Amino acid sequence: MRPNNILVILDDEHQRGILGCYGDRFARTPNLDALAARGALFTDAYTPSPICVPARASLHTGQHVHQVGAWDSAEPYRGDYRSWAHRLRDAGREVLSVGKLHFRSSKDDNGFSREVEPLHVKDGIGWARAVLRRDPPVSLDCYDYCVEVGAGETSYTSYDRRIARAAAAEIRAAAQKNEPFALFVSFVSPHFPLIAPEPFLKLYENVDLPPAPLWRAQGPRHPVIERLVQALPYDERFTPESAMAARRAYYGLVSFVDDCIGEVLRAVDESGQRESTTVVFSSDHGDSLGGHSLWAKSTMYEHSAGVPMLVAGPGVPAGRRVTTPASLIDVYPTVLQAAGLKPDAEEEALPGRSLVDLAQAADAPERPAFSEYHDGGSVTGFFLLRLGRWKYVHYVGHPPELFDLEADPLESRDLGQDPAYARERAACEAALREIVDPEAANAAAFRDQAAAIERMGGEAKVLGIADFGYTPLAGAAD
């Protein structure tokens, strides 16, 4: 049997709910909505880590962050753990990437036969300050988030247009050769800077967008999150007007990247390959976009740790809404299955499941979902466990959080220390510990980061490495 074509599409920092197919009545996303209509939509999908570099290492290896030691933004994937790209290539398939990878370098064997217009971490190091977690320094570049807002073109939007064109060309070339393709296409939008091309921003100029939920809400904040906010002070300089302008620009970027994705999907359709192509769409993590007075990522709230996830193609029921929790780690077995490859013993032990199988099966909302964070601004490890209606966040050495997502979808009431919910907390913690020993993982992260600080010449040297809010596109000319 001829194996399926494989198309994995990733965008960057896309809040799960901001798509028309997820019920957002303002979002103009016709291409992704059409993909959802002919496939399955996962209502409760999560990133393995709410930050770019660790999340991408997990997506490619199918393993949790603590399993591969991809703790932070200064520890990029370097090809030392087998990825699904390695597996397909070693089985004789040509496997291409087009766009952002956020690995260390194309000089490493990342598994791809070719990397087209790759974007890797800056200087092969990434965001060095991520390792300074004992006393996290203040990132002044966070203030740019509220300044770089509005209409226009950036190196990111120019890059995404090139990625769409290059990916479409590869798909058409594969059809001409009559060979199955395996393609990873990765855009940087809607990641900030929140500057959207004018035609897409205009879609929202007269739209009465709602304010971010719980923006500037009164009440105590978890002490670990409070310390994170001190290090990453995104919200400090926002006004109600600039916060709404940022939200409009973000929606504009979502529509922009939907348009780019549409160009890629049209190439599949126009080359006659729709019926033989398994398509997976997701994002590396979300964006808080003002929710809980937070911006960007780095927390375990739904707007940061949740991701959109769609799958379509052979064997996927059309119009299916799947409430079984899913994760980016599920991409590896999905790709393996679409390629017609039988898992070996190592792959049988991977924690993920095929998204096609999950879409075909009865809903299993009690399937645990897991995420972790050991990156900039965190004075301890964050560990998320989603179990049915409950979301438990374990902070090593600090009180946990517990949210009832059925009764409180905005996560406005923390039940983490409420004695009435001791049984639910215990059940969630037990399920978490079946996946990870949080104390051991936390200690390993700090140990590896201490070694990284020493390799870089000490804390003063790390602080001397240029700070930046987002990866520059050096070497990727417009």
| Low-pLDDT residue intervals, each spanning 5 or more residues | none
Backbone CA Rg: 21 Å
Number of domains: 1
If helices are DSSP runs of H or I spanning 4 or more residues, what is the number of helices? 15
The percent range for helix content is 25-40%
- Under CATH, the topology can be stated as Alkaline Phosphatase, subunit A
**CATH first level: which class?**
Alpha Beta
Structural class by SSE content: alpha/beta
| Major sheet characteristics | 8 strands, mixed
Q: Strand-residue fraction?
A: 15-25%
**Quantity of strands, as a count:** 17
CATH architecture: 3-Layer(aba) Sandwich
Average pLDDT for all residues:
96
Q: How far is the first residue's CA from the last residue's CA?
A: 42 Å
Shape: globular
The CATH superfamily turns out to be Alkaline Phosphatase, subunit A
Adjacency order of strands in the biggest sheet = 5-4-7-1-9-11-2-12
Notable traits:
478 residues, alpha/beta, Alkaline Phosphatase, subunit A, eight-stranded mixed β-sheet, four-stranded antiparallel β-sheet, 15 helices, globular
What report would you give on this structure?
This protein has helices spanning 30-37, 52-61, 65-68, 84-90, 155-177, 198-201, 223-231, 240-270, 302-305, 331-338, 345-348, 355-360, 422-435, 438-455, 459-464; strands at residues 5-11, 39-42, 45-46, 95-100, 114-119, 149-151, 182-186, 194-196, 277-283, 306-307, 309-312, 320-322, 326-327, 369-373, 382-387, 390-395, 401-404. By secondary structure, the protein is α/β, with parallel strands linked by helices. The chain has a single domain (5-464), classed as Alkaline Phosphatase, subunit A (3-Layer(aba) Sandwich). Helix 5 runs parallel beside helix 8. It has an eight-stranded mixed β-sheet with strand order 5-4-7-1-9-11-2-12, with helices on both faces. Strands 14-15-16-17 form a four-stranded antiparallel β-sheet, with helices on one face. A three-stranded mixed β-sheet has the order 10-3-13. The protein starts with a strand and ends in a 14-residue tail after the last helix. Helix content is 33%, strand content 16%. It contains 15 helices and 17 strands. The model has no long low-confidence stretch (mean pLDDT 96).
